[in-house]
Amino acid sequence: MRGKYAVIGSLYLTQGLPFGLAMIAMPAILRQAGHPVESLGIFALVMLPWAFKLLWGPLVDNHGLARFGHRRSWIVPLQVATAAGFAALAHLPPESTPIVGFAAALVLINLLCATQDIATDGYAVEQLAREQHAFGNSLQIGGFCLGMLLGGSGVLIVVEHLGWAAAMAGLGIVTGLLTLPVLLRSEGVATPPPGGERAEPKRASLRALLRRPGIWVLLAVAGLFKAGSAGGEALLHPYLVDAGYGLDVVGMISGTALIGLGTVFAFLGGAVTTRLGAERTLVTFVALSALGMGALAILAAIGQTDLPQFLPALLLENISINIAYVAAFVLFMRWSSKEQAGTDFTAFQCVEAIGNIVAIGVATHLAGQLGYGAAFAFTALAGLAVALFLRTVLTESAARRLDVIPEASATGE
């Protein structure tokens, strides 16, 4: 049991490293170097592999080395390649490397991690029983947040004191260490049905997913639940830099005050989701996240950047969206077929990433044209609208009509 959870947590932590580097560290570093805030939206491109990995999801589901482990035969080489990617970045100094070069390198590394995620998602769906979904997804969200903390805030602090090369070498070493749990644990083989041979597995396909009843509503839930928060969070670090804070202070704020506490609450989100039910938890905490973003909009509009006034709003937004994330991923896991676990779970995550890319592009454009206050306000209103939509489509009666809760009530685990 513990070995299974160690594999899941370590692999999702790895995925957060390049994502945090791209979305937290690089915008702050490059903004300090004088790049206009509008240009920082290019780092939203790192979401493209996460948005389109469903295109090769069936490949990962359908092919693998059974002797080594279907999922492990994908995960281990991808982990090694990711570590090598960080080592290569150590030779690209920020002072002389074009912003497009960094964006391209980080898209490639995120491509490796996004493909690893397909195999890891399949492993999690196959290995976890229904009653383990909430804790398993707490590990997923918490591990990813911790990876973002190390790859984003941790890199900012290390760059400030030890330099870029040391920070990238550190990420490569961490990635290597996080590969050990999956190397040390056998993947295991599914038990055949009593009195019969193991059934020939069906080949995974996107067509099978898209033919399911109510799938377009479920995909809309996936694409919208995080969009408002993603747009606002993309503005946070450039806003703090423009307010006069140094990279180390920005790193400490986003790390200790936001991602660190967000990680803790992501783990607690499993307990909240179990108690309230995934649907009710998702609606409630998406709405609370939007309220936090609304408070940020008011503070930005009046030019208030003092941390004692700013931090409570940041904490409300970040803690709420991390709990909402756990609830959303429990639903994604529940809605994924065991017959093509990696493909289905990946599809929900891809649609989420597409929604986030659009939201970040809109928010950064609004910030450049109308200012941070207007952009934060837009993301807050978008979040409240999404919460109302979720409340409508995730009621128990609606969920039963969509045939997505065959085993238990929509309001409980």
From TrEMBL:
This is MFS transporter. Its main location: membrane. It comes from the Bacteria. Signal peptide: none annotated. It holds the Pfam family MFS_1. GO terms for molecular function: transmembrane transporter activity. The chain crosses the membrane at residues 12-30, 42-61, 73-93, 99-119, 139-158, 164-184, 215-237, 249-270, 282-304, 310-333, 345-364, 370-390. Residues 215-413 form the Major facilitator superfamily (MFS) profile domain. Keywords: Membrane, Transmembrane, Transmembrane helix, Transport. It is found in: Membrane. The lineage of its organism: Bacteria, Pseudomonadati, Pseudomonadota, Betaproteobacteria, Rhodocyclales. GO terms for cellular component: membrane. InterPro entries: AmpG_permease/AT-1, MFS, MFS_dom, MFS_trans_sf. It is a multi-pass membrane protein. CDD domains: MFS_MFSD3 (cd17485).
